Amino acid sequence: MVTPGATEDRRGLQIRLVMIRVVTSIGFLALAISFWVLQVFEHDKYKEMADNNHLRTIPLRAPRGVLFDRDGRVLVENRYSFTIAIIRERSANVNAAVKRLAAAVGADEALLQEVMARHKRDPLFAPIPIIEHASFPQVAAVRARGLELPEVVVQQVPTRAYPPGGFAAHLFGYVSEIQEAQLDRPEFAGAASGAIVGQAGLEKVYNTKLMGTDGDQLVVVNSVGREIDKIGEEPPVEGQRMQLTIDADLQHALEEAFHAGNMAGSAVFMNPKTGEILAMTSQPAYDPNDFATGIDRGTWAKLNNDPLLPLQDRLIQGKYQPGSTFKVVVTTAALSEGLITPDFKVTCPGYATFYGHTFQCDKHEAHGTLDLRHAIAESCNVYFYTVGNLLKIDQIHEYAEKLGLTGKTGIDLPNESESLVPSTEWKMRTTGEKWYPGETISVAIGQGQVTVTPISLATMITTVANGGTVVVPHVVRAVDDGTGWKMLEPPQPRSVFQFRPDVLQVLRDGLWNAVNGTGTAGRARIEGRDVAGKTGTAQVISKEGRAAAAASGKGLDLRDNSWFEFFAPVGDAEISGVVFVEHGGYGAASAVPIAKYMLMTYFAKKDGQPMPTLESAGITVPKPPVSTVTVAPGRSGGPR
Amino acid sequence: MIVDRRLLPHLDLRLIAAVLGLTFIGLATIYSVTWDFRTHRPGGEFWTQVYALPIGLVAATVCLLVDYRSLTQKSLLIYVALVLALVYVSFFGVVRGGARRWIPPLLGFSLQPSEFARITVALVLAMFYGERQRSAATMGALIAGGLILSVPFLLIAKQPDLGTAATLLPVFLGVAYVAGMRVRWLVIAAIAVALLSPVIWQYGMKDYQKQRIETFVNPTKDPRGAGYQQIQAKVTVGSGGLAGKGFMQGTQGGYGFLPVAHNDFVFSVLAEEHGFVGVLVTLALYLFVIMRSLDAAKLARDRVGAFLVVAIISGFAFQVLYNITMSAGLAPVKGLTLPLMSYGGSSLVATLAGFGLILNVRMRRFTN
Question: Closest Cα partner for A70 from A237, A359, A274, A227?
């Protein structure tokens, strides 16, 4: 039963059904196009976003290069320290987590919250190192509470391990996290924010070599940050290993000697033929391990406010008047310029007057009449005032420069100070005044305006020891960049001074006499070793100033600084150096025994003899030594 | 129940194949996305879905075997049962995720009656308009249909489940359209809604609903909150590329960056793992299902049958289009599942039952 109306109605229905098909098809076509845009056209963008979601790059810190001594013994290595970190992404309530963590490890919650606040802007998935260098009990406490502290992770971080007790602290320097301002500096090229870099000493100078290359790990994480899979790892490349010129035995002996007398000062022992430094120290020192584990504010303030300046490397940064050790320069100048002969004689009445000013001799009773060799040995000031009066200041400057005493020595350690031996040009440039000849008299005995670093004085005496070569002191002997040890070329000498043989002979005779004859350095005498040397005693304050300071009652240490420069054996020197003791009084009293002990140690080791005792060198030992070298058993490296 | 053997050759096997194909694609995607990397097992949602499949097939068979006309004749009864169930749920229902939608578990399953509202409304509306001449051409008939719709609509919207309630609208509009509703009215209604939208925005919408729309317009405004799903949906789909990351290789869904990936965003995961190719295949299957169903409407022996098919397939098509658009981050996020593929036992059973009815109409096109 089909009515006409129903037929018409049926046609209308069919048309409307077609319309539904059309509209639906358009919808599906639009969807297909949309998916094409997202999945094909914009795929790269979303692929990257998806990867950023589930792939995490975890940096793996490279251990720094191990440092060995010249015998291949480990001096500085790396240990693994534990860092307790919080991953905020994993935590429902970070504050509560920090509270639980503080309770678990027995830490001050306020301090931990402070750390968290500092890292507020870090990404949520990044572990925030909340307790660095955690102790074993702390790590154990965290690991035992893994379920209560799901957001807390323990990371192993390679950390610099220095010998204890500040051993060779100024040589090694220390490391710490790179500062914002250092990121652009060329010596820290390649170091990213948060990197551990050398901030002093060798660690700074050789930072690029020692630092190594951090690696990373690519892991898959889920939306709550849990690691699901590790899909790639670029292992870290350990920093280059370095063999130093240092001899750990000598280094130990040197520090032992300083500690025995609880003395401040510095010393260096080197091979005069090459400039290799065998031992060097600056006392008092600091413990580089304090920096490696992130120095706390208290320790840092204490180091900075200590009047004895433990952070300063006195050897290369301290500038002092050299006292009588400077007479070597004056002698060289006067002889080389032909102003005197070795037989030039002066009669010492215990004082002398120049330009209306009376200058005292060191020895208040008169030396009597002396020639040059005896004047050096007995360190007669009146003799050298007289010689200095013959010299012009520019001549003294010239020979100081030729012997390597001026400017920087070029040692491969940072922030070296420039030694100053005055000249007319220098005075005009710095003060605008001309040089007065009267000023030369003080300079002739190493007082007045001459200020030098111990390392430059050591370079000067080394020039005498080796017959004229101004070597560049250095501390690195060989480097292993991962392809085997390579000896480094010793640095080219700064210059070579053509000593007149007779001048050199007179100098060496005088210096030998000072030790082996009737001279001031008799305590350094070692049978059969032909030690040559010169003591120095430099006033730190004038006599008037001393009286005023004593009246002030501040208890300042105003005793003279004590020097000893030396080399041995005199004819063909194999060791040379300088010992400087701050406020050590007469050079002969404090500096000389240290040098003697070192020389005895050096020769004993060389000949395979038993090592000397401190007492045998004339050093009294009030208490057991505080420093010991720890040498990892069975580990060694470096070319022999 | 006995069925005339002569009807069986008219069973639309291609439609059955496409519907089952989509169901299996859905199962595989749920399997992949709920896979637990620690226990190396698919999640419980997968098994729920697996158990729902035979139940759905039984429901579909029942809907197929009974003559659809006897169902439409009894549709008011079914309608009353549905309303009672919805009322029951609004008082005693189980609350999950802040919405009271489920009848408490019986034999291990909890039932979501709102999922059956579409079929019920389709049956009632097919009966209502199909039995009259020039049915929906008058305003009165249109309003009467709207009233039939509004009772379950309001009950479901109150749960609250505005998404599921909204799927009733295309059911109504679809039937009304083929039943002769003037297109003019539809246009007027659309203009009225557009003009009233500021008023609706101000007084008719809850804050979270406003936020959803704001977030859709500018998802970066709240990238960790409401905008997160939308951004991640795009990332999920876009990162799939042309060929996809591979089965079980999806990172966005599998590692939990895309929330409710097994449910509302199941298509995003499919797009991620099987790429644009997988998307095209799946879209083609859905389009085929819709077109094949519209064939059934065209071939139906009477208006009731045609309207029933249109009612069911309109709701289905709307939900498919909206969900897939949303799964690509191109529509505001709304709790709307993808029929046949999304996780949800009641939804699967109800959808399969709907296709039982569509097959029913086509199978009985020559009977009197």
Answer: A274
Tell if the CB–CB gap between B252 and A27 is shorter than 8 Å. Answer: no
Continuous segment of H or E residues that includes residue B209: helix B207-217
CA distance A59 to chain B (A): 22
CATH architecture of A248-285+311-617: 3-Layer(aba) Sandwich (3.40)
Residue of A nearest to B297 (CA): A17
> Which tokens sit at A166?
């500040």
Answer whether residue A516 shows pLDDT above 80: yes
Residues from chain A that touch B178, judged by Cβ atoms under 8 A, are 13, 16-17, 20
ipTM for the assembly? 0.92
Contact between B325 and A6 using a beta-carbon 8 Å cutoff? no
Higher per-residue confidence, A318 vs A51: A318
- Name every residue whose Cβ is closer than 8 Å to that of residue A67 and which is 6 or more positions away in sequence: A74, A75, A76, A77, A172, A202, A241, A242, A243, A244
> What residues in A contact B252, CB-CB < 8 Å?
50, 53-54
HSE (CB half, 13 Å, CA atoms) of A215? Answer: 16
Give the angle subtended at the CA of A162 by the CAs of A161 and A163, to the nearest 5°.
Answer: 125
Contact A27 B255 (CB under 8 A): no
| Domain ranges for chain B | 5-363
The alpha-carbon gap from A236 to the nearest alpha carbon of chain B, in Å, equals 28
Yes or no: is domain A50-78+161-226 CATH 3.40.50.1370? Answer: no
Sorted by where each begins, the domain ranges of chain A are 50-78+161-226, 80-122, 248-285+311-617
Q: Do B241 and A24 touch (CB under 8 A)?
A: no
Inter-chain CB proximity A24 and B174 less than 8 Å: no
As a whole number of angstroms, the distance between CA B319 and CA B343 comes to 14
Chain B interface, mutation test: which of A19, A35, A88, most B Cβ atoms within 10 Å? Answer: A35
- Among the partner-chain residues B37, B241, B257, the one whose CB lies closest to the CB of A47 is B241
Q: What is the pLDDT of residues B58-107, one digit of tens each?
A: 999 999 999 998 999 899 999 999 999 998 888 887 777 666 777 766 65
**Which segment of A204-208, A217-221, A236-240 scores lowest on mean pLDDT?**
A217-221
Q: Closest Cα partner for A535 from A575, A584, A574, A473?
A: A584
* pLDDT tens sequence across B143-198: 888 899 999 999 988 887 888 888 899 999 998 888 888 788 888 888 888 788 77
B251 at interface of A, judged by CB pairs closer than 8 A: yes
- In tens, the pLDDT along A91-101 reads 778 888 888 88
